[in-house]
Amino acid sequence: MTTDPSQVQLTADGRLKHFLTTEGLSRELLTEILDTADSFISTQERDVKKVPLLRGKTVVNLFFENSTRTRSTFELAAKRLSADILNLDIAKSATAKGETLMDTLWNLEAMYSDMFVVRHADSGAAHFIAEHVTPNVAIINAGDGRHAHPTQAMLDMLTIRRHQGSIEGKIVAIVGDILHSRVARSQIHALRTLGAAEVRVIGPGTLLPRDIEALGCKAYYRMEDGLKDCDVIIMLRLQKERMQNALLPSEGEFFKLYGLTEEKLTYAKPDAIVMHPGPINRGVEIESNVADGPQSVILNQVSYGIAVRMAVMAMAMSGQQQERNELAEQNSEQSDVHNNEPGQEEA
Amino acid sequence: MRYLHIENARLIDPSQNLDQVTDVYVAEGRIHAIGHKPATGGIEHSIDASGLLLVPGLIDLGAHLAEPGFTHKGSIASETRAACASGFTHVCALPDTKPVADSPAVIQLIQEKAAKAGFAKVLPLGALTQGLAGEQLASMFSLSEAGCVALSNARAPFKDSYVLRRVMEYAATYDIPVFLNPDDAALSDGGCMHEGPTATRLGLTGIPQTAETIALAQMLLLVEQTGVRAHISQISCARSVRMLAQAREQGIRVSADTPLANLIYTDEAVTGYNSQFNVQPPLRSESDRQALLAAVNAGELAISSNHRPHEVAAKKAPFADAEPGMSIFDGFLPLALRLVERGELELSALIRATSTLPAAVLGQNQSLSESNWFNAALIDPAAEQSFRRSTLLSKGRNSPVAGKTLKGAVNAVFIDGRKVFG
Amino acid sequence: MHLPDIEQTCTELGQRLAAYLQQNNIEQPLLVGIRTGGVWIAERLQQQLQTEDGVSTLDISFYRDDFTRHGLHPQVKGSELPDSIEDRHIILIDDVVMSGRTIRAAMNELFDYGRPASISLVCLLDIGRRELPIQPDLCGVTLALEEGQLVKLSGPTPLQLSLA
């Protein structure tokens, strides 16, 4: 029986051993990720940016979907933890069948890999791998379909915490294509767990998924209403395909309604920060004046990305390691029992 | 004459409004007497059926038997045997085999395999369109002549409403019954589960209820226009139940069924990406489930198995990539009885929905009454069954009951008076 | 087992450190405490010596050699060092020196911040059981504990020693 994804990623004593989703993780654990990431930020400001924590470990970047950006930040994070990293870009067609996907993963596991960073077009792919394929390899979800992108969400949380002091009590609006956004889903869960006062999603009806409010956010169709009193504005990237799928008429109309301009920014609190997971479509989601303006923290997000990924990788590897050690201990205890002479009574 | 004597069984037959503890005497394949011993002849064999239910054999209005073409998933022999384990005497085989059941030769092959296996009788459903492609009419008259009880396009879409209209008109000409699965392919495109809060949370593409109801509306209007004898297969939505009731009120002759899975599970079962629950039609909301249960209890809706066996690999994939379907024959009866035990389904409604109504759809007489063929199942409702992957009768490894212990087991299945199972 | 008086040990250690600095011509030492106990001792010594830079802290969580055995410490707080430690004379301070592994990790970390002119090691207690060729330059008290016994410092106010 498949279990709750949030539980699959935890050890028996509640520590991270995979990182699949922000949903269902405790406030303490999310805060621990942010605290650890904070510590890594200080190492990233040195000349020597590497720490020896994961020396000798092998991390495989398994990207079933292209994303040079995300892959590079994971690669850099792994290298700065002194792990060996292997990059594999696997076209989805080659692994259309579940069987082939599993063969690929088992082969990599047989090469003594310690961690897979997985990007896949199917929602639940990372969870599937963690539960059914290679449970003894730490799995980091680098984006699965529309489901989750937990490291991106955590770097956004870190950005909010560093620039607004805390997440507790803040009003956060997420704007744009919520329907296809794994980032938005991961953000909503993390924001709610970390105590945001209100999470809002803003977009046209075609880009807001049905029953989105069941996730604990409030849906708005107009920027003027949705941005009112906001502390944080998160703009999402708009993919060009949306125009072909009859979800939107044109980029121009989208920008007119939802593009973040200096004028629309005034609806929010004067000290509101503006975020974007990148890469930005200037003039589609956001105008250049705002993207490069004083309230934008978009570039900071990028630099925190490495630290957050280092934190998550270190924590998941740590939990996975603990579980392996316990398993090895149990096995050795069992073999001790087997070594007992026949007829020898146990106390 | 020598009789098979079934003693002290609780005989439930909704077609006659019967629920009583009695004796049944069978000879030469037919029921000779109920209640009293016939005047002449002796007892050849007696079965003490105290505490057991004797019900008319279950008739499945739609199962995927995987043969021909997918014998790594199941065979006619393995799947009809698994059907017997839940009390089925007849199984309608959906035409989406390889090759598609769109020619008399394939129908003949299926019938031969079924006869050789000797378990539940297979009632082939021929294809409505060639290759199920939804474009050109299949040789519908020839298929009917070859022994198809009805014709269906499974869940394969029709190219457009023009083709659907012509399919119905042609079938109506020869009074061939058609089984139709309402599904608007454009609205369900890419979807793998019910569109609702769970799909949104899991980031899976949803199939809206309107994918079913819009297609159903179109079908009902064309059924009215063409006068075809139509059965709507595998509905999943509350709204469909209401639309069917309204259609019947307006005098449209139409029956319908729902898969058992849709009476048991809801879309929340998908939480955790359990690919076992990737099924079509999708598992819907709790209010849909309740409406379907109410319709079954009211005698408006039949229950089909929608049985679909798969090998392990077909389900070992991220949710949307897994093949849809559930191998439900082994667990069908205990799962249905659990609904009865919970008070969600009346026992007589269950028998009516799985035997009486399907028999009416197919124009068969499945009643347990004197001089009728003895097609029946003897059920021990209290017996516990432990299902293990290795002992499942279906070849499919995608059974929802694997690893579970459930109450309710079939003691014996009789087809035309012959014991074929138990 | 009789445990030494901390206040007194610290005061003596401070006096010996002042003499050590003079003897080695170290005018601007950088006091670096190892989290958590080492930082408390370093702060105590800083008050006494009134060095210019205050106390820097070193969190060796990312440098431990027992990650594969014990994993990551759940409360990593990070190191706080000045912008440059290049050519500085570092006084590395810890509460208890035992195997020497913590000191090795601390020195590895320091070198990732720059190339110091020198590193001297100051410890409140030395309980032996060394596993690496590392010895403190100054040590408050040397204790001979029984097998399996450990000593624990709690603080920061008051600083207290206990046996575990």
Fold topology:
The complex is a heterotrimer of chains A (347), B (422) and C (164).
Chain A: H1 5-8, H2 27-44, E1 58-63, H3 68-80, E2 84-89, H4 98-110, E3 115-120, H5 125-133, E4 138-144, H6 150-164, E5 171-175, H7 182-193, E6 198-202, E7 218-220, H8 223-226, E8 232-235, H9 241-244, H10 251-258, H11 262-265, E9 273-275, H12 288-291, H13 298-339
Parallel strand pairs in A: 1-2, 1-3, 3-4, 5-6, 5-8, 6-7, 8-9
Helix pairs in contact in A: 2-6, 2-13, 3-13, 6-7, 6-13
Chain B: E1 2-13, E2 18-27, E3 30-34, E4 42-48, E5 53-56, E6 58-63, H1 76-84, E7 88-93, H2 104-117, E8 121-127, H3 140-145, E9 150-152, H4 161-173, E10 178-180, H5 185-188, E11 193-194, H6 197-202, E12 206-207, H7 209-226, E13 230-232, H8 238-249, E14 254-259, H9 260-264, H10 286-297, E15 302-304, H11 312-315, H12 329-341, H13 347-362, E16 376-386, E17 405-415, E18 418-421
Parallel strand pairs in B: 1-4, 1-5, 6-7, 7-8, 8-9, 9-10, 10-13, 11-12, 13-14, 14-15
Antiparallel strand pairs in B: 1-2, 2-3, 5-16, 16-17, 17-18
Chain C: H1 6-23, E1 29-34, H2 37-49, E2 55-58, H3 67-70, E3 89-97, H4 101-113, E4 118-126, E5 138-142, E6 151-154, E7 160-163
Parallel strand pairs in C: 1-2, 1-3, 3-4, 4-5
Antiparallel strand pairs in C: 6-7
Largest sheet of chain A: 5 strands, parallel
Estimate what percentage of residues of chain B fall within beta strands: 15-25%
| Oligomeric state of this protein | heterotrimer
- Overall CATH architecture of the largest domain in chain A: 3-Layer(aba) Sandwich
Which regions of chain B are unreliable across 5 or more consecutive residues at pLDDT < 50?
none
* Range of strand content of chain A: 5-15%
Mean pLDDT of chain A: 90
The CATH class label of the largest domain in chain A is: Alpha Beta
Low-confidence spans of chain A? 336-347
Tell me the CATH architecture of the largest domain in chain B.
Answer: Alpha-Beta Barrel
At the first level of CATH, what is the class of the largest domain in chain B?
A: Alpha Beta
Number of domains of chain B: 2
Distance between the termini of chain A: 37 Å
The CATH topology of the largest domain in chain A comes to: Rossmann fold
Shape of chain A: globular
Question: What would the CATH topology of the largest domain in chain B be?
Answer: TIM Barrel
Mean pLDDT of chain B: 96
Structural class of chain A: alpha/beta
CATH superfamily membership of the largest domain in chain A, which one? Answer: Aspartate/ornithine carbamoyltransferase
Kindly provide the radius of gyration of chain B, computed on alpha-carbon positions and rounded to a whole number of angstroms. 21 Å
Q: How many E-type strands of chain A? A: 9
